[in-house]
Amino acid sequence: MTGLAIAHEALQDQILQAKARSQVLSIRGLGSKDFYHALHSDKEFQPLSTSALNGIINYEPTELFIQVASGTSLRHVEALLDAQGQCLPFEPPRLKLHAPGALDQGDATMGGMVASGLSGPARASVGGVRDFVLGANLINGKAEHLVFGGQVMKNVAGYDVSRLLAGSMGTLGLITEVTLKVLPKTLGECSLKTQLSTGQALALMQKLGQRPLPLNASSWLASVASSDAHDPSARVDMVLRLKGAKAATQSALASIQSDLLSMGLNPEVLSALEAQAHWNSLRDQTHSFLTTSPSVDASLWRVSLPLKALKQGPPSFAIKALTEWFGALHWVWADAVQARAIQKEVLRLGGTLSLWRAANGHEQDPILKGLNSGVEAHVMQLQNNLQRAFDPGGVFNTLRAHA
């Protein structure tokens, strides 16, 4: 029996024991996402560690896939891919900070990457985690070891359960293995920075989005404080990243520079080191905006909006936000009262609001718990039905997927 098989058997025994004792298990890898979606219950859950699920099972660079045990370090996998000139293009966050109990250097596991469903700055252009999941193995609440998907894209008959696991936050069962599509690293990359208003930023993104440009990521952040998102004096520092073939990237850069100059703006091309530092700070949540609360009562909120909702202009909170994904993703600091107003606007625009990190001492604030929800009733019913199918005994019912 292999080491992984022994680990699977031990984990199945722990799940059966928890079921017999009516215990709830909380799956944990290296602890980088302990804070995320963790405000829904005051109960103490029993930990279920994935530390024994470690290692590369199968990697075929020429076939563009990698199969790994779920407790394997994301950094280890990325180093292996990088040596072959490949990558996970959706830039999963490694979350080096704000992870109580995590390893000193901070890290994430492959299972946690899939279970959280989080992606980095390139999400809007390349797709998210679930778009790259080819297959997954899962131990459900009945301690059955199930296999879904495979190693190629066209391998699914019926429900694509392996992709369903992305964002499930461990509430459907324990992911033991995952197979992911990988891609070659691009040869051409450059980033440029300029300063403009929030309205100009959205208009520029809509204009560029209509052209066949290798736009990969964007961000903008207020450079002048303002309470009015429509104030023409409210300026933001915008950074755009282009990725693709070298010739296409250089051509697109020249085209965008021309557009910005025609708007009376002064674009600056960032050095490779400056660009890498900027995008990594967004990916890993080390950017100063994301780590520095403006007040003791302010919590950090994650707002996702459909791009079509932005055609009428930026939302009222935009000037105070760090914006990514061509305008679709906003990071906002707000206390409970401010968050209520933001939630109303977000729901009107067809988006979702979720609590990313609570203010110190507010982790169990009932107001924050109530606001941390954008799940519609019919979607919640589907979630509950899925959980009952995979976990009828509620062994993994931590409610973390309901945020």
Structure explained in plain terms:
With 403 residues, this protein is an alpha+beta fold. The chain folds into 2 domains: 3-185 and 381-402, Uridine Diphospho-n-acetylenolpyruvylglucosamine Reductase, domain 3 (2-Layer Sandwich), CATH 3.30.465; 188-371, ACT domain (Alpha-Beta Plaits, 2-Layer Sandwich). Helices cover 30% and strands 23% of the residues. It has helices at 3-20, 74-83, 110-116, 123-126, 161-164, 198-209, 246-262, 272-283, 288-291, 336-348, 366-371, 377-390; strands at 25-28, 46-49, 56-60, 65-69, 86-87, 133-139, 145-149, 174-181, 183-184, 188-197, 215-222, 235-244, 268-269, 299-304, 322-324, 329-334, 352-357. The two termini are 40 Å apart.
Poorly predicted tracts of residues: 97-104, 225-229
Radius of gyration: 22 Å
In total, how many beta strands?
Answer: 17
How many structural domains are formed by the residues? 2
- Share of residues in helices: 25-40%
Annotated CATH architecture of the largest domain: 2-Layer Sandwich
| CATH-defined fold name of the largest domain | Uridine Diphospho-n-acetylenolpyruvylglucosamine Reductase, domain 3
For the biggest β-sheet, the strand order reads 13-10-12-11-15-16-14-17
- Assess the beta-strand content as a share of residues: 15-25%
Mean pLDDT across the residues is 87
What class, by secondary structure content?
Answer: alpha+beta
For the record, give the distance between the C-alpha atoms at the N and C termini, rounded to a whole number: 40 Å
Largest sheet: 8 strands, antiparallel
The total count of helices amounts to 12
CATH class of the largest domain: Alpha Beta
Morphology: globular
User: What is the ordering of alpha helices and beta strands?
Assistant: HEEEEHEHHEEHEEEHEEHEHHEEEHEHH
